[in-house]
Design goal:
By secondary structure, the protein is α+β, with helices and mostly antiparallel strands. It folds into three domains: 2-43, no CATH class; 49-147, Aminopeptidase, CATH 3.40.630.30; 178-332, Aminopeptidase (3-Layer(aba) Sandwich). The chain is built from seven helices and 19 strands. The strands form three sheets. Strands 6-7-8-9-10-19-11-18-17-16-15-12 form a twelve-stranded mixed β-sheet, sandwiched between helices. Strands 1, 2, 3, 4 and 5 form a five-stranded antiparallel β-sheet that branches.
């Protein structure tokens, strides 16, 4: 509390942690009229608390996800893993016991990489710097864990996260194209110029050794996760994914797929690495057949962007439910 006589006015002010206030008393010929008016001259919102994610936060996370990806956000399907996996370090911003933002940094590649993922901000609290605050904090967490680099993926069509990545010193290192396609009945289309077959990890590693440029940066992508394609990781992925491989004099192709649950039902999510158009089309055909045989009516395909020119040559792919560009950003420490 403070008071001061100035030009016949007694100004008494005080400050709270969130708002500054001032009481004004007018003094006239030695008499106080005791005219009190509350004047708010600075109003600022309560600063959200930064803390570790808790299980009780899950309902708030689900609420945030409803306005992300048109309600098809995958975050509700992985949030429990963030809580149970010791490699994950999830944080939230809490305002008045309500989670308004969330993000995670996961340590992968044998401690080499900090993978930043799942950054979400409630729709009513966007454009307030919350995403930047969480991102900067996760960078500091990663640095304390002695990783060699920090990575994240963004949509190539969303300027805000790209600027956010650049703001912390990250650079784009590789780009992917992604499309979604749903079917009531699968088309009678095939391209078998290169025969693909289900493969174990040893066959995958052999194919990659024979074609060292098949997988750019030696970074293999499964859904929205990108890993170093080491022997150990390929063997780990074999336990939860399906590899398809093929090669002949026309080219080589490698596919990594997984059944993925979404709010629209199960989908076949696969990444496709190819040396040329023939191998890409053969890989696409093999995955279409796999999804059909397993009763999966939705496809999500991730591939290098040079093959998007083939969409117009495939009748069932000329129209797609959705598509985007995916950019891998990296900060070397």
């Amino acid at each position: 509390m403070k008071g001061e006589i100035r030009f016949g006015r007694l100004e008494i002010g005080f400050e709270s942690s969130s708002t500054s206030y001032c009481f004004d008393t007018t003094v006239f010929h030695g008499h106080s009229l005791f005219w009190f008016s509350l004047m708010i001259f600075r109003v600022s919102e309560v600063v959200p608390q930064l803390r570790v994610l808790k299980k009780d936060d899950i309902p708030d996370i689900i609420e945030i996800s409803k306005t992300t990806w048109n309600g098809h956000d995958h975050l509700p399907f992985i949030i429990n893993d963030w809580l149970e996996n010791s490699s994950c370090h999830p944080f939230v911003l809490d305002q008045s016991n309500k989670v308004i933002a969330v993000a995670n940094v996961r340590i992968i590649d044998n401690g080499r990489t900090a993978w930043m993922e799942g950054l979400r901000v409630h729709s009513e609290y966007r454009l307030k710097g919350l995403a930047e605050r969480l991102t900067v904090h996760l960078v500091e967490v990663a640095k304390k864990l002695n990783v060699k680099r920090i990575r994240l993926v963004t949509s190539g069509d969303n300027i805000a996260p790209i600027k956010l990545a650049a703001g912390i010193g990250m650079e784009p290192v590789v780009e992917y194209a992604v499309f979604w396609k749903g079917f009531r009945n699968y088309p009678k289309w095939s391209n078998n110029r290169i025969e693909l077959e289900a493969a174990n990890s040893e066959s995958v590693l052999f194919l990659m050794k024979q074609h060292p440029n098949l997988v750019p940066l030696n970074a293999i992508i499964r859904h929205w996760d990108i890993f170093d394609a080491t022997k150990k990781k390929i063997r780990e992925l074999e336990k939860t994914s399906c590899f398809l491989v093929g090669s002949n004099e026309l080219g080589a192709v490698l596919s990594l797929g997984v059944h993925h649950s979404t709010s629209a039902g199960s989908e076949w999510c696969f990444s496709l690495f190819a040396t040329n158009n023939d191998s890409f089309l053969s890989g696409l055909s093999a995955n279409l057949q796999y999804a059909d045989q397993n009763g999966l009516r939705n496809l999500l395909c991730i591939h290098l962007p040079e093959y998007t020119s083939l969409y117009s040559k495939i009748s069932w792919l000329r129209r797609r439910n959705h598509e985007l560009r995916l950019i891998l950003h990296e900060l070397v420490l």
